Amino acid sequence: MAIFGLLGAASLLAQDEVLDARAVKINLTPQDAPVNFVSTTMGESRVTSRGAAVVLDLHMSLEMRNASPNRIRGVVLRVVSQEVAAGGKASVAVPSLNIGPGESFPVRIDLQLMRPTQVAGGPLVQVDLDGVLFQDLTFYGPDRLNSRRSLTVWEAEAQRDREYFKRVLAQSGPEGLRQEMLASLARQADQPQLDVRVIRRRSVSAAALAPEHQAQFAFLRFPEAPVYPIEGSAEISGGEARAPRIQVENHSGQTVRYVEMGWLVSDQKGQQYLAASLPASDPELYLPPGKSAQLLQDTELRFSRRGEPVTIQKMTGFVSQVQFADGKVWIPNRQNLQNASLLQVLAPSPEEQRLSDLYRRKGLAALVDELKKF
Amino acid sequence: MKHPSQATLALHAGGDLGFLARWRAERHVARCARCREDFAAFLDLREVLPDLSETPEISWNRLASEMKANIRLGLAAGECVRAEETPLRHSLFSGARAAVAVASVVALLVTGLVLQHPAPDPASVDGVEVQTTANGDGIQVREGGRALRLLHTGARSVTYSVGAQGAMRARYVDPETGNVTVNNVYAE
Q: B135 in contact with A at a CB cutoff of 8 Å?
């Protein structure tokens, strides 16, 4: 009878089937769009029933083609499943591209959905283009996820880091570049990472309203930053932080439409981690020169490392990106990061990650050839 | 006119018909001379049957006693067989076998419960949360039993970053395409 029980359980587990192609809807771009979907492969995509729950494993590869006369620098695809995560959505972005006119490139999406019940009819997942950024920083797409700003910031970081490595190559030769790559790979391997869980509550419990103490932010200031942090705090209780808020002031001569702060925390041993970014809460932020605004998020962050809560001893903030009314962005330069020892704490830019990976896989000559393309 | 069968007339003579059949038979016999004669013959035969039991060549009473005895013997034998089967039934559903059966049922129920709730999380909250997946192969936005996950299976070095507004990002070099890929989930 035990065998029958196990067989019964196994049969329940084995209720999976190949994913119906109709379960995924890809919203194609218009024919005159500067980027087109060429083909889609679904690979080993499957739907599995586990009791009353349905798990969908989607392994999809989209082939896209640059139909514009410009080179593509980055693309963002939006992934939405209304039934699975109310209020939840996802995206897959590919920055640091260099796709010429007429060239094709792949975008892979490995996705898993879990939901309580089978819903009859309709696609489970919808995939559509949110935006594409070109070499001249022009943008195409609906931009529902603020992809224009993300891609523009990544491109600014890419230009900054490529220039830095080209300068190292020019001043110190291939061996100097090799040392930079080895240092970058070492930083990436040693970068301290926290496990962070962000919770946006539907209702606020009494426990959530009783913080242990209000902790103040210390700030790193970059001399040429267009926005300065003034003061800020968060409610701290052990390894939890709630409702962070930072007051900032526009010191530039241009109107600012978006500000994002980097948020560092230190544990009891003095180890510093990048905890999160703190973006402006108001999507319609309008900050003229000389004016101030408050960045505020009504969320709860739980910090842990290797399964153990991390007690927060100190919080530090710095301005990590600013977008002006004309769409241009400001980011810290390489010297800012070096002087503030932020290179040891922050993740490398996508471009530095790509170039160091190219060096690791194909060697110095391939890296030098790649830098010469820009 | 449809005449009743001989069997019906015989049963009627012995008073063994039901109410409706008897009423129909009486009604027919009262009108039909031929059936009335047959009915009368069956009544006569019934009167002489008790005498036949005393016919010396066939001892009907002894035969009936023997048949009753045989029936009782058969019933007694049946009881004996049932009495021997009872311990067998008890041994089938007792001891280790019963324990295994109960354990199997419990295992099946537990398995069913687990499958009904494939991702129980005692720390689940009333709200939307973003976090890394339990086995570290992706990031997810989840609410109750629903989750949307983006996986980076096979990626060598993954950096995670969090947005305090309720977003999480996983960045890695795709081992198949060589392109930097940034997966994002949003709880907004």
A: no
In total, chain A counts a number of residues equal to 374
Q: At what angle do helices B19-31 and B33-52 cross, to 10 degrees?
A: 120
Question: How much helix, strand and coil, in percent to the nearest 5, is found in chain A?
Answer: 25, 40, 35
Distances (CA, A) of B185 to A90, A277, B88, B161, B167: 4, 15, 63, 11, 6
Domain with A23 in it = 12-143
- CB pairs < 8 Å spanning A and B: 239
Enter the tokens of residue A293: 């605004």
Can you list the alpha helix ranges (DSSP code H) found in chain A? Answer: 2-13, 147-190, 334-339, 350-362, 364-372
Torsion sign, CA atoms B107, B108, B111, B112: negative
Lowest mean per-residue pLDDT among A29-38, A97-106, B104-113: B104-113
How does pLDDT run across A151-200, given as a tens digit for each residue?
999 999 999 999 999 999 999 999 999 999 999 999 999 888 889 999 98
ipTM: 0.90
The reply to whether A96 and A74 lie within a common domain is: yes
Residue A174 has which token pair? 């291939």
**Exposed/middle/buried for residue B107 (C-beta within 10 Å: 0-12, 13-18, 19+):** middle
CATH number at residue A199: 2.60.40
Residue A368 to chain B, least CA–CA distance (Å): 17
Residue B99: its chain A contacts at CB < 8 A? none
- In angstroms, the Cα distances linking A243 to A214, A220, A313, B12 are 10, 21, 17, 101
Q: Please give, rounded to a whole number of angstroms, the shortest distance from the CA of B175 to a CA of chain A.
A: 10
Q: Are residues A231 and A266 in the same domain?
A: yes
Write phi, then psi, for A150 (nearest 5 degrees).
Answer: -60, -45
- Contacts of residue A94 in chain B, CB cutoff 8 Å? 179-182
How far apart CA A162 and CA A148 sit, in angstroms, is 21
